[in-house]
Design goal:
The chain has ten helices and no strands. The chain is mainly alpha-helical and 266 residues long. The chain has one domain.
Length: 266
Amino acid sequence: MSVAGRNPALTFEILVYQNKKTKIMESILKIMGGLLGVMIPFLFAMNLNKGINNSALDAEKKIKYRRTLILVIALSTILIWALSLSKILDYHKGDPVPRFAIPLIVFVFIGLYLVKNKDYQTILAAMPLSVLVGVQTFRFAGTAFLIIANLKILPETFRLAGYGDILTGTMAIAASMALLRESNNAKLLFWLFNIVGLLDLLNVAFMLLFYYPEWNPNTPNSESATQFSLVMIPALVAPIAMLLHIYAIFNAIKVKNRKWTEAAAL
């Protein structure tokens, strides 16, 4: 028998310590989720603004689109925060569709629909490809999934999401640096980054849906991912990451005679 087993008082102290440690980690995760809910929309706006500045649009249009950009992203971010804090995005028994999926689908749909606009195409084509790729180093924040799975806030399989985000962040650095240095493997790394990153996002979406409490009675399930502030990941961070991948691919295809370097554009 262990020392703790022979000493009830010591066992209680260990349990109290572990509980306190868990609560501290949960508080840190809430703070991280909140930070992501502010920083990622900001980074997204900065990238689009770089495209506006680099584009051949006239000064009047640049001012117009810059104001629209700030307004739309700011209002979208505030809306998700409001819905999250008011628990509207939380899981509610009987929901036929996960509520967090609604903003995810809406944001991606709007982002794709805008690509039909010629001026928006011009803005996307003017965004430095190396920056579009490099900004996704924020995916390293996905290491939080390892902590979340360890605390059993989400199922153990969510560790895969953590490893996927680490790999995506690493690929983002490698591809971005290759683009800047005009490396021979820049094109290969660019496409590998997008494949890995998109598969990672799809994997997270699949797990969130597979473990959704309405369809999966086991615990832990994905209910915690619908609550503040973890819901920022599927409702705000994931659609932005998805659009960044799509915009990078559009940029790579749209810009003719690309030499797979953006050093001059920076």
